[in-house]
């Protein structure tokens, strides 16, 4: 059991744990049962079934996630994209319009630009760093403002506090995808956001072994989203719930290590003669460093950089490193190194990539849990 005053580390361990414990089990057991016996004269809403997101594993996890973000309620979903798509669909109907940050995760970008228009839902992309331009993008049918806490791969941070305030002033639901920030480094509800989304596949689970999502916020909004989630069927399997529940307990330790390691690597890269540019919000040279310092407790485990030798040098580094796996995703124990133009941003045209600042040679480094010194030695060897 957790108290509201408990610190994050304590809430990660104790919030949402069943009371009394099931059979005395200290770790939450897996309830791998699709359906549950009806108790007495229970009504339809009391039926327990995996797709209805209400098995003991779902309920414990939802309570833990809500406590971690300081919210009333939360939901777990079958992937980060299930969280994004179900949330947007439940808040926007035909004729609805949303404002969204221009640099979005590729899947979210595709959903907003290709799938939502087929349902009569339109959007306008905004510059999340320039609040003075937002009012001109409003329409009478605008319902939602959608941003990401840290953009990928240039790790930019928009004016998050202004976004939450603007949404409130204009009657919009404000949504933030805080996957890259994590609740360890940023608490978006304290900035005034209505809903926080996560790809729990990444830091929340933290072990590169499941795909999951989370939606956290006010109970009434979560109830509306759950209703659609129950119908669309994007429920997380109880075994994946169990793994996410287990992963969450070490979130604070992992993210603090990854953030400290990423900062050390960014500083080391900044001084290396083969490196042309380093993008990391913890560096004083980063354009959004002041915002990061104001709102974040740590700057996250993702950084990107460019080598003087361009694409060729970037591919050579990927091939030469021993400890850095060439694979998409982030937030696990393993450090991952990719060239976004051929990975996360391969779906964009070279023109679109250039417009969003993703050069062909840009490298993205998602720092894992290895010793920082070993990662630096690996980069040093790779850059020789
Ligand atoms: N949001 C962000 C910021 C992401 O990076 C991702 C995946 O990379 C998603 C959402 C989608 O998450 P998932 O792959 O769990 O569906």
From TrEMBL:
What family does this chain come from, according to its entry? Answer: Belongs to the trans-sulfuration enzymes family.
Looking up Pfam families in the UniProt record yields: Cys_Met_Meta_PP (PF01053)
Q: What is this protein called?
A: Cystathionine gamma-synthase
Q: PANTHER family this protein is in?
A: TRANS-SULFURATION ENZYME FAMILY MEMBER (PTHR11808)
**One annotated GO biological process:** transsulfuration
Question: EC number(s)?
Answer: 2.5.1.48
| N6-(pyridoxal phosphate)lysine PTM sites in chain numbering | 202
Assigned keywords, A-Z? Pyridoxal phosphate, Transferase
Q: What cofactor does this chain's UniProt record say it requires?
A: pyridoxal 5'-phosphate
Q: Which GO terms describe its cellular component?
A: cytoplasm
- One term of GO molecular function: carbon-sulfur lyase activity
Q: Which domain of life is it from?
A: Bacteria
| UniProt enzyme class | transferase
Q: Where are the transmembrane segments?
A: none
The root-end lineage is: Bacteria, Pseudomonadati, Myxococcota, Polyangia, Polyangiales
């Amino acid at each position: 059991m957790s108290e509201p005053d408990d610190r994050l580390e304590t809430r990660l361990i104790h919030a949402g744990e069943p009371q009394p414990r099931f059979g005395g089990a200290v770790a939450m057991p897996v309830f791998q049962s699709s359906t549950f016996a009806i108790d007495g004269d229970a009504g339809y809403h009391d039926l327990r079934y995996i797709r209805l997101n209400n098995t003991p594993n779902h309920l414990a996890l939802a309570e833990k996630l809500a406590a971690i973000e300081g919210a009333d309620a939360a939901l777990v979903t079958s992937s980060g994209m299930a969280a994004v798509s179900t949330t947007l669909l439940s808040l926007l109907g035909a004729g609805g319009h949303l404002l969204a940050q221009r640099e979005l995760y590729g899947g979210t970008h595709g959903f907003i630009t290709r799938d939502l228009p087929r349902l009569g839902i339109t959007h306008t992309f905004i510059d999340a760093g320039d609040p003075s331009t937002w009012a001109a993008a409003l329409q009478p049918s605008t319902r939602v403002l959608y941003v990401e806490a840290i953009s990928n791969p240039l790790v930019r941070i928009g004016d998050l506090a202004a976004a939450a305030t603007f949404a409130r002033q204009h009657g919009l639901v404000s949504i933030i995808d805080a996957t890259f920030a994590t609740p360890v480094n940023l608490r978006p509800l304290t900035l005034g956001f209505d809903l926080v989304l996560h790809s729990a596949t990444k830091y929340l689970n933290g072990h590169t072994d499941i795909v999951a999502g989370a939606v956290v916020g006010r109970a009434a909004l979560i109830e509306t989203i759950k209703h659609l989630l129950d119908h669309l069927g994007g429920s997380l399997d109880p075994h994946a719930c169990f793994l996410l529940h287990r992963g969450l307990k070490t979130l604070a330790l992992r993210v603090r290590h990854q953030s400290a390691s990423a900062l050390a690597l960014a500083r080391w890269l900044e001084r290396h003669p083969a490196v042309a540019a380093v993008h990391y919000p913890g560096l004083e040279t980063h354009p959004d460093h002041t915002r990061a310092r104001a709102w974040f407790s740590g700057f996250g485990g993702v950084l990107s950089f460019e080598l003087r030798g361009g694409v060729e040098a970037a591919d050579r580094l990927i091939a030469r490193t021993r400890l850095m796996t060439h694979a998409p995703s982030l937030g696990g124990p393993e450090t991952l190194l990719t060239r976004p133009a051929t990975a996360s941003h391969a779906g964009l045209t070279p023109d679109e990539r250039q417009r969003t600042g993703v050069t062909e040679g840009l490298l993205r480094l998602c720092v894992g849990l290895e010793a920082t010194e070993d990662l630096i030695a690996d980069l040093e060897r790779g850059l020789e």
